[in-house]
Amino acid sequence: MAAPLLLPPQLPFLLPYADIERVLRVVAGGIGSRSLTDFRERLLDGLATHLGYRHTTFFVGRDLPGVFQDATPLLSEHIAALEGPYVEEFHRIDPFATLAPATASGEPGPVMLGALVPHFRPEHERYMERFLFRNRLYDKVVIPLLGCYRTGGVGLLAREAGTFGPRDLAIATMLTGALTGVIDSWEAADEHPWKESLTPAELRVARLVVRGLTNAEIAKRLYVGVNTVKKHITAVQAKAGTRNRVELAARWRAAG
């Protein structure tokens, strides 16, 4: 891991009251969550509903570098198909992970893609060309959610270059501050034991089953065979004690 990249202080941007109110709605929705899983889902839903960010990701790890190694990240519906390629390959060369950004205070803060570009190495160019650009994504912001026991990383992505500016950075900074420590609110034990027993592959398949995708759709999205999907669903249902997809979806939602 390279030494932390020290970013220059950002210019202040005064958010209008309407934006502050929208951010607070997102925060309130997250704080009211029943579990870490629920928190992740509510936060991405809130970002889309209240702030219009529809291409989003949520990774969790023990620390900021570990965030990008999350084997079961949550991606919004618009970019959910990118989960497999990122987890299998591209997390290793993501510039947001390998450049280890930090603010002037030494604490991780929101980082915009443009701040990292001057420091790119060849592998970061490959990430841009083979992952972001190939999937028609041209701008990105990462928002760290800091805790004592775990750390979250929320990603905002855009279809046009230069989409994110001072307003988005101010929103991201407000979210980082308002949600500091919240990610520690749920102990691992608050997730039902059967969920904790799922492998990363089983968890990815289960999430898509609950969203209503068919086996063929899941296979296409995760770049695996239909028989592999069936095998994972059988394993998930055995661990959850359910007999079909409807029961599995109901038990999943009951577990938060």
Briefly, what is this?
One of its GO terms (molecular function) is DNA binding. With 256 residues, this protein is of the alpha+beta class.
What does this structure look like?
This protein is of the alpha+beta class and 256 residues long. The chain folds into two domains: 5-188, Beta-Lactamase (2-Layer Sandwich); 192-254, Winged helix-like DNA-binding domain superfamily/Winged helix DNA-binding domain (Arc Repressor Mutant, subunit A, Orthogonal Bundle), CATH 1.10.10. The chain is built from 13 helices and seven strands. It has helices at residues 17-31, 36-51, 64-67, 83-88, 95-98, 113-116, 122-132, 166-178, 193-196, 200-210, 215-222, 226-240, 245-254; strands at 5-6, 56-61, 74-75, 101-102, 111-112, 139-145, 151-158. The strands form two sheets. The protein has a five-stranded antiparallel beta sheet. Strand 6 and strand 7 (151-158) form a beta hairpin. Helix 11 packs across helix 12. The longest helix has 16 residues, at 36-51.
Report how far the terminal alpha carbons are from each other: 35 Å
Supply the helix-strand structural class: alpha+beta
Q: How large a portion of the residues is in β-strands, by DSSP E?
A: 5-15%
The CATH architecture category of the largest domain equals 2-Layer Sandwich
CATH class of the largest domain: Alpha Beta
DSSP helix count?
13
How many domains, in number, for the residues? 2
Helix content: 40-55%
Please give the number of β-strands. Answer: 7
Remind me, CATH topology of the largest domain? Beta-Lactamase
How much is the radius of gyration in Å?
18 Å
Quaternary state of this entry equals: single chain
InterPro entries: Sig_transdc_resp-reg_C-effctor, Tscrpt_reg_LuxR_C, WH-like_DNA-bd_sf
Pfam families: GerE
Keywords: DNA-binding, Transcription, Transcription regulation
GO molecular function: DNA binding
